[in-house]
Amino acid sequence: MKNIVLGLVFILGCNTHIWSQEPDALMINTFNRKTTSLNGPWHYIVDPYENGYYNYRYEPFDQQEQVSANAYFTNTKAKRPSDLIEYNFDESDTLQVPGDWNTQKEKLYYYEGTIWYKKSFDYTKTEDSNRVFLYVGAANYKTEAYLNGKKLGTHLGGFTPFNFEVTHLLKEKDNFIIFKVDNKRSKEGVPTLNTDWWNYGGITRDVKLVETPSTYILDYFVHLDTEDNRIIKGEINLKGEVNSALEVTVEIPELGIEKKLVTDASGQGSFEIKSRKIDYWSPENPKLYEVSFSTNKEQLKDQIGFRTISTQEDDILLNGEPILLKGISLHEESPITKGRANSRADAEKVLGWIKEMGGNYVRLSHYPHNEHIVRLADELGILVWEENPVYWTIQWNNPNTYANAENQLQEMIQRDKNRAAVIIWSMANETPVSDVRTAFLTNLIKTARKIDPTRLISAALEQSSNPNNPNIKHIDDPMAELVDVLSFNQYIGWYGGTPDLARITEWEITQNKPVIVSEFGAGAKQGLHGDKNTRWTEEYQEYLYQETLAMLQKIDQLKGMSPWILVDFRSPRRPLPNIQDDYNRKGLISEEGKKKKAFWVLKDFYDTWE
Ligand code: GCB
């Protein structure tokens, strides 16, 4: 075996393995940049033993001085009849990108492991001096990226974007990108082994090439001053040849604003503009302004809304006025394709249902969703809670797990910090109280507040019972002190007792903060009818909503809710035949788009809640 491997050593040139492993600094707003889509069919090879990645001594090929032709990322083809090459991308089947693999091929429905993807393309830059980046909206969970046989790097995390500069590797003809995407769950991962959702694998979001000038706008953050809503503040970050002062012009034509600023030696600049005429963004008035940033080489536009969000005692204030968050939780599953959602059409459908329900708010659980839905929420005026996938019980003591969680948090905030719709960053969901966990989440909060001091921080916590009376509930968690909004999940009437229990339950919430009930719900199979005490019927779910809403209204600080959940979603924890069939049935709408009775209960409540 060894002789054969050596015989096929394929010398790709030195330094192939010394390439940086981390993605490059994440650029924002690829929606308005010069891009070329790489969506469409990609050839793939299923590789459960990671045979294309490790040699027979289980050493990674991409860390060898001389790279073997057996390494799939070399995309080697047999040239002579005597050559032994045991893979061939071009003769392998294809998967659509973006898209999870589970719902595209029956044989991959339960697959967790490595799949290799390959796409070939030609590319001519508009200007020779320009840079080109390979941008991936998301791939679940670990991605090793290669271009033309060279390693670009590795990205961890299934729900946030990453990019690599590829300027120096790109050719005009016959480029090939190869991604190794591995969705194996792991104990140290974020999320970890155990979740109540489907572990969809694959390149689940858009892939594109982004062309920029040699010095380019990496990133900016534009928002109102939290103290004075007549002041628009912003920071901008250039990359490239930034060692001399560079001029940037910020324009908001509709407000008659044109402001010049000069960046420092690291490419950073900031500005403050006073305007008395701002039309503030809100659910009733989702006003977006065109904001443009220009250097002598580039103009980048974005559509940005201006609003403030804050809390005062137990109120949530939007533009200084108290607001009730009439919401619902949502997983990123497509009501159209029934796999991972990733299109504007998917987003239009689910946000349309929320509007129909009388809602103004969505909890994007339990991980960052695609950028299409966040941008559409901005346009439609739907407030958004975004969540880091720190779910249930992760390795609180593991520094790598922390670094991973923090990185995913930073990528989420980086991508969406200019979206007015996003008002809450959630750190975690239902994490068990302990000192190490609280320290972990405290550090995440510090990071979030440092990058974005303008939004509210929360986390979906758990409730506990009074030791002397199990029907008296409260929130006993040190996290309650650290969040701006006190959020908790509760399942009285489903995981504990029956819905009538809500009548004798009392809430003693001592924290003087706004409360959002981040989850409650019951499973029902759409179309299954019976009496209100029979589980899985629409009537049981309807009854639970009636009782729960009556109970929650007695919480003085109640300022919002996001019941669990808008649409039934896939979960391997839900095998009950003929009822669940791999779906968590707590949706108010079935995966086929049919509304259950409880949908109308919530709508009636939202139509009159004030
Ligand atoms: C929860 C979790 C959510 C589950 C839900 C359920 O508390 O936060 O991810 O799907 O309960 O249906 O059990």
Automatic annotation (TrEMBL):
Keyword set includes Hydrolase: yes
EC number(s) per entry: 3.2.1.31
Glycosyl hydrolases family 2 sugar binding domain: residues covered: 68-213
Name under which the protein is recorded: Beta-glucuronidase
Domain Glycoside hydrolase family 2 immunoglobulin-like beta-sandwich stretches: 215-307
Location of the Glycoside hydrolase family 2 catalytic domain: 312-606
SUPFAM superfamilies noted in UniProt: (Trans)glycosidases, beta-Galactosidase/glucuronidase domain, Galactose-binding domain-like
TM stretches of this protein: none
The keyword Hydrolase belongs to this UniProt entry's keyword annotation: yes
Family named by the database record: Belongs to the glycosyl hydrolase 2 family.
Pfam families assigned to the protein according to its UniProt record, in alphabetical order: Glyco_hydro_2, Glyco_hydro_2_C, Glyco_hydro_2_N
UniProt-listed PROSITE patterns: GLYCOSYL_HYDROL_F2_2 (PS00608)
Keywords linked to the UniProt accession: Glycosidase, Hydrolase
